[in-house]
Write the structure tokens for this entry.
Amino acid sequence: MKTIKKLGLVSAVAFAMLAFSACDDDSSSPVKPEPEVSSEADDVESSSSVEGKSEEKGSSAKDAESSSSVKNGKLSSSSTVKYSSSNGTANSSSSSVIQNGDSHEGSSATQSSSSSVKSSSSKITDYTGVECETIGSTYRDGRTGIRYVCGEDYKYKVWVPEESSSSGPYEPFDQTLPLDGLSEKYKTFTDSRNGRVYYYLTIVGRDTNYVKDSIQVMAQNLNIADVTLKGGENMTDDTKIERYCYNDDTTKCDRYGGLYQWAEMMGFNDSCNTRSCAHLIQENHQGICPKGWRIMNINDFQIALTSTDDHANGLRSGYIFSGSNKSGLSLTGSGVYDHQKGFDDIDEAFYMYYPVEYLYQGSLRALSQCIGRRNDGAGISGNPRLDALSVRCVKLK
């Protein structure tokens, strides 16, 4: 894949349209990275390991063969992040269990539901034990649920499905539904780390320099973890891959993929969420993608965006996410974990980090992409790196 030069990055940002309500924070205007923080490293081979970089995150034993994300140890830092957000799902959310390691997650043979959501008459509390206030009954994701407002001064909202305890085998989500039907353009790849099968396809479009190019990209969000955290817990174990599942419901990871903080996605030590690690970013950065794959970058996204005449609508799945999916990329509304507000925007927006850091009003952030369900915008934005977003992987050429 061609190196993304500064000109290409500037062009991509210049093409960005104003974002919309589902893509909040500083996404309401195009990002303008400040020059003192570099983006992706120039001309670094994708298959080379970074040697001697103690900032990089240690990989699990079963992923030790990975060519571009071999980790050499955990950084000892006095500024280790231990953040606890005000997310009020700990005592109320669905706990339908899929094992943390996601071993053969597509199989229903060994998976059983242990859903323990209380009925609508039950009260829930935030992480400090303070009772949340009931707003009312709402309909979402095909189910009725109760909306609560929680936290000091009622700063955030929590939605809890209205369902009683259930038993019986969990039926894995049909991953072909967001594809809007299988066709010959889709192939499959099995991640040897957990046995999960991904659909992928070839997309032909034009890159940030308007040069015709192609990518082979997953049509699903990545879902890999050694440990599944709950909202309010931070990704600090640098020996394991950690993830969030929307609303602390592991069945959501099966359907939408995991949500990952920036440093986690990149395979870095968690301190890279709060300090510059630009010197560790490779041209074709593998991060937590499987061996032979890399994290989707701005150039890749531009190729997908220009592959049809339908702009962002052509990227969105027609399954719940109101798109034409002409490109085949099949984006879904996987939502976001905001480290201050909790989970948000399920079925309303797709969020994805790029392997690029930048400076925004003196604060280090990461470039991100947001595609909303109700708008055709495709502007590049940015998020605090403690937020957790979806990950898409592109096959190495």
About this structure: The helical segments are 6-14, 250-256, 262-266, 298-305. Residues 6-83+173-395 form one domain.
